[in-house]
Amino acid sequence: EIWPTLKKISVDYAVMEGAAEAGLVATVPGDFGWTDVGDFHTLGDVLETDSDGNVLVGDDKADVVLSDVRDCVIVPQSGRLVAALGLRDVIIVDTPDAVLVCPRDRAQDVKKIVDELKDRSDSRI
Questions:
Q1: Is the pLDDT of residue 82 over 90?
Q2: What's the pTM?
Q3: Which of 37, 50, 85, 93 qualifies as a FRET site for 24, CA 20 to 30 Å off?
């Protein structure tokens, strides 16, 4: 109930800017890699892949059958079988209430689908 009423603002603005202005933030130099995991495409870049470059996210990996599938990100969370054939660079997210399939290079555009569902007043969003 509360979530939809919250102001849409990123953590760096909501928390860090105020904390920095109050003198509560310090920086320490470091030499380490950093990846902003903000979508499923990037998640596929940082997680371990199988021999075909696929990333299976979660504990339902037994529910996935892949044939001639390469460089995909598969997130099986519904308990249903997820079967894919002949795909390249695709994201498949299977949850109990929805299925998302899109090219990996369009992962940032998922927001367009969410906005469309909101415009329709779809209760699933």
A1: yes
A2: 0.72
A3: 37
